[in-house]
Automatic annotation (TrEMBL):
Enzyme Commission number, as recorded: 3.4.11.-
PANTHER family: ASPARTYL AMINOPEPTIDASE
Protein name: Probable M18 family aminopeptidase 2
Ion transport recorded as keyword: no
UniProt lineage: Bacteria, Bacillati, Actinomycetota, Actinomycetes, Mycobacteriales
GO molecular function terms noted in the UniProt entry: aminopeptidase activity; metallopeptidase activity; zinc ion binding
Residues that, per the record, bind Zn(2+): 76, 150, 399
Length: 429
């Protein structure tokens, strides 16, 4: 279990942005014999294949008869963070600042007083075309400093204005600081990416915590890392797919960008990306639209997103009859008002997968008097018509710059998803 958790740490440290998540997943798929196919090309009828669109990726191991349906694990590649504004340079009281803004439901205070790097994507002019260049700077160039307690209006509470209080210090004074004060932050990033700043026509840049992921606690019982929500699910889903063999149903991994901001992009879970890929898998094997539509009701999808463990300092914030422990197995998530897509039959299907994997299943319900977050599950179920179950692994500090989970849960989560994808596994309707 410790080895699996250490592998998750390496996965996360290789993937500071959604674009890097896709690059990491693609590299590991290729190493396992998968071939990338472009959306604009014709797809082969069988084999281990994957396709990418921006910060999303879909991979599958084609069955001989894909019209019999699909077993799908869906997760998301993005995490809440602070992102660089289009005009990033600010000068205040002799400081050079980079203007940042929140992405998703970021827990703002957790980003203060941390050494931050920069990662993401530059869209660069290349002759008469455009190309994307991944960039990451793993040096402590940015910091969002906390206000001294002596200057605070209220020492008992912290109120952060996302417009005024989240800009990062990155230069001041003489030398290199003075040079970049007269050029700009984008000049620095372009230089580090090895491209001319005048060729950078667009960018998607974000901050990341530079402290490496690591195993912590007595006996290395825990994982302390950024972006566990939801890279732990991406890693578990990838591990499950790489172990899967096709039976009559095709195992599929679908990792989407933009879940943290609603999924309504051309490659989010609200797009046609997954549905189109599934139809093309059927068509490549010689099926028609009737075959594709007939395959959907017999398919099954696990929406894999992290779950709330019961916080030992705030147990009253949790539903008392559904206490969730770390290192105690994956979590089935249920909500009567469909914040999660689980129903009784899909719950039973995942429970059976956990039994087949030999792991304990925990069941989560949210407090009835608190608003509940959601996942790609309900949206994907409605969009595809595929029966869906919402599952996850327990963690603390969700949406913090640094999160916390049990090391043993890493392997158990992957094993449960592996059984879910396996031939003869959990039944569909």
């Amino acid at each position: 279990m410790t080895a699996t958790a250490a592998e998750l740490c390496r996965f996360i440290d290789a993937s500071p942005s959604p674009f890097h998540v896709c690059a990491t997943v693609a590299e590991r798929l290729r190493d396992a014999g998968y071939t990338e196919v472009a959306e604009a090309d014709r797809w082969p009828a069988s084999g281990r294949l994957f396709t990418r669109r921006s910060g999303s990726i879909v991979a599958w191991h084609a069955a001989e008869r894909p019209g019999r349906g699909f077993r799908i694990v869906g997760a998301h590649t993005d995490s809440p963070n602070l992102r660089v504004k289009q005009h990033p340079d600010r000068q205040v009281a002799g400081w050079s600042l980079v203007a940042l803004q929140p992405y998703g439901g970021v827990w703002l205070n957790s980003w203060l007083d941390r050494d931050l790097g920069i990662s993401g994507r530059l869209s660069v002019r290349s002759d008469s075309a455009l190309r994307d260049v991944l960039v990451r700077v793993d040096e402590p160039i940015l910091r969002v400093p906390q206000l001294a307690i002596h200057l605070a209006e209220d020492r008992k509470a912290l109120a952060l204005d996302p417009q005024r209080h989240l800009n990062a210090v990155w230069a001041a004074g003489e030398g290199a600081g003075l040079y970049y004060q007269t050029t700009g932050f984008l000049d620095y990033v372009a230089e580090r990416a090895g491209v001319a700043v005048d060729d950078v026509l667009g960018f998607d840049l974000m901050t990341h915590d530079l402290a490496p992921s690591r195993l912590t606690g007595v006996g290395e019982a825990f994982v302390s890392a950024p972006r566990l929500d939801n890279q732990a699910s991406c890693h578990a889903g990838l591990t499950a797919l790489l172990a899967a063999e096709p039976g009559e149903q095709t195992p599929v991994l679908a990792l989407f960008d933009h879940e943290e901001v609603g999924s309504t992009s051309d490659h989010g879970a609200g797009s046609e990306l997954l549905l189109t890929a599934l139809e093309r898998i059927v068509a490549a094997a010689g099926g028609d639209r009737q075959d594709f539509l007939a395959a959907l009701p017999g398919s099954l999808l696990a929406s894999a997103d992290m779950a709330h463990a019961t916080h030992p300092n705030y147990p009253e914030r949790h539903e008392p009859g559904h206490q969730i422990a770390v290192n105690a197995g994956p979590v089935l998530k249920v909500h009567p008002n469909l914040r999660y897509a689980t129903d009784g039959r899909t719950a039973a299907a995942f429970a059976l997968a956990c039994q087949q994997a030999g792991v304990t299943l925990q069941r989560y319900e949210h407090r009835a008097d608190l608003p509940c977050g959601s996942t790609i599950g309900p949206m994907t179920a409605a969009r595809t018509g595929i029966p869906t179950v919402d599952v996850g692994a327990p963690q603390l500090a969700m949406h913090s710059a640094r999160e916390f989970m049990g090391a043993a849960d890493v392997g158990a989560y992957a094993a449960a998803l592996g059984a879910f994808l396996a031939p003869g596994g959990a039944p569909a309707r």
